[in-house]
């Protein structure tokens, strides 16, 4: 039975991969840009959103990334960071998200004079404000932050220490983001060693702009507990898409350990990691038993919500049970203590009305 948009909206959702600088409200971006004199492609919210999504659909990475120059320009003060984080949580909650992990790179928000610690605290204040505001509107949500280090720069050890200093209240994990091809986890060996020694959870962007070997390095040297995107892990599976498959070491490890793959359907197509929604590798990976999860990546830039991502998967043949399994995998993959993950999983089960 095909789910209606209202039925999809009502389903509880868990998002593990949502970039703060990729999910601003268009109206907020326009208002904040005007305050600092930053010129945007349009000052009409609908048109601006359309320009960004058209650029994302163009198959041109330069055009896709253009939006981030605009969003980060307005994210250089504590007040703006607090507001943007608050609105992100409120918007996700209104979309049926009951748990969200928002990721951002603190080093991208210090041009206005903030310290890295001040950036982290401003975002956390916004997250907490958003949770309270959402609850007042009747939407219960829990939200957390993941700190990104930019993989083409050299501050990963500093950001790793920042994550450790703020574990618990302001940070639940560490990530490296930015250009994947040519900037492997090995460039950040010291950071990952520090994190391993201190038992800090790690997720790494891999298997999006580079192949299965990138996923392998993320799981090995990086000791990643989840993989950001990860869709090109199928390149380590001989016979992928047939009835006779043979797993390479990397794919077997991810399957055996049930490493959550933070798939982002629309974004993966836009960046070329998947040929189309209909032919997205996540469908077959799901059928093979991999821990596939559904995520937004960049809500403004890609023009998506969690509900719209659920919707395109339903159009591609996903059932309510398929969405449930992916959401349950996300709940168990959350960077939370075991008992809190169990509670989150129970909320997902109750929300879907699935009799296990």
TrEMBL record:
<keyword id="KW-0378">Hydrolase</keyword>
<protein>
    <recommendedName>
        <fullName>adenosine deaminase</fullName>
        <ecNumber>3.5.4.4</ecNumber>
    </recommendedName>
</protein>
<dbReference type="InterPro" id="IPR032466">
    <property type="entry name" value="Metal_Hydrolase"/>
</dbReference>
<comment type="similarity">
    <text>Belongs to the metallo-dependent hydrolases superfamily. Adenosine and AMP deaminases family.</text>
</comment>
<dbReference type="InterPro" id="IPR006330">
    <property type="entry name" value="Ado/ade_deaminase"/>
</dbReference>
<feature type="domain" description="Adenosine deaminase">
    <location>
        <begin position="12"/>
        <end position="350"/>
    </location>
</feature>
<dbReference type="Pfam" id="PF00962">
    <property type="entry name" value="A_deaminase"/>
</dbReference>
<keyword id="KW-0862">Zinc</keyword>
<dbReference type="InterPro" id="IPR001365">
    <property type="entry name" value="A_deaminase_dom"/>
</dbReference>
<keyword id="KW-0479">Metal-binding</keyword>
């Amino acid at each position: 039975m095909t789910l209606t948009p209202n039925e999809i909206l009502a389903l509880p959702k868990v998002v593990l991969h949502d970039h703060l600088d990729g999910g601003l409200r268009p109206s907020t971006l326009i208002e904040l840009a005007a305050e600092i004199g930053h010129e945007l492609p349009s000052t009409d919210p609908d048109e601006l959103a359309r320009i960004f999504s058209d650029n994302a659909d163009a198959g041109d990475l330069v055009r896709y990334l253009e939006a981030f120059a605009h969003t980060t320009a307005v994210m250089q003060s504590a007040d703006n960071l607090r507001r943007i984080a608050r609105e992100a949580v409120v918007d996700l909650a209104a979309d049926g998200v009951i748990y969200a992990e928002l990721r951002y790179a603190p080093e991208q928000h210090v041009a206005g004079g903030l310290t890295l610690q001040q950036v982290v605290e401003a975002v956390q204040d916004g997250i907490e404000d958003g949770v309270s505001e959402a609850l007042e509107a009747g939407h219960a949500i829990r939200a957390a932050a993941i700190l990104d280090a930019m993989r083409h720069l050299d501050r990963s050890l500093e950001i790793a220490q920042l994550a450790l200093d703020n574990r618990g209240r302001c940070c639940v994990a560490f990530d490296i983001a930015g250009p994947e091809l040519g900037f492997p986890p090995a460039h950040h060996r010291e950071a990952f060693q520090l994190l391993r020694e201190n038992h800090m959870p790690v997720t790494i962007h891999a298997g999006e702009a580079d192949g299965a070997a990138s996923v392998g390095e993320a799981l090995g040297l990086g000791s990643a507990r989840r993989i950001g995107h990860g869709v090109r892990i199928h390149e380590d599976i001989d016979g992928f898409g047939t009835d006779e498959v043979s797993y390479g070491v990397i794919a077997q490890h991810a399957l055996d350990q049930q490493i959550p793959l933070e798939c982002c359907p629309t974004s993966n197509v836009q960046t070329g990691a998947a040929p189309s929604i209909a032919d997205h590798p996540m469908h077959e990976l799901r059928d093979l038993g991999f821990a596939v999860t559904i995520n937004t990546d960049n809500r403004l830039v890609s023009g998506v919500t969690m509900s719209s991502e659920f919707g395109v998967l339903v159009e591609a043949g996903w059932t309510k049970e398929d969405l449930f399994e992916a959401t349950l995998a996300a709940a168990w993959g959350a960077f939370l203590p075991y008992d809190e993950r169990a509670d989150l999983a129970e909320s997902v089960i109750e929300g879907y009305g699935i009799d296990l």
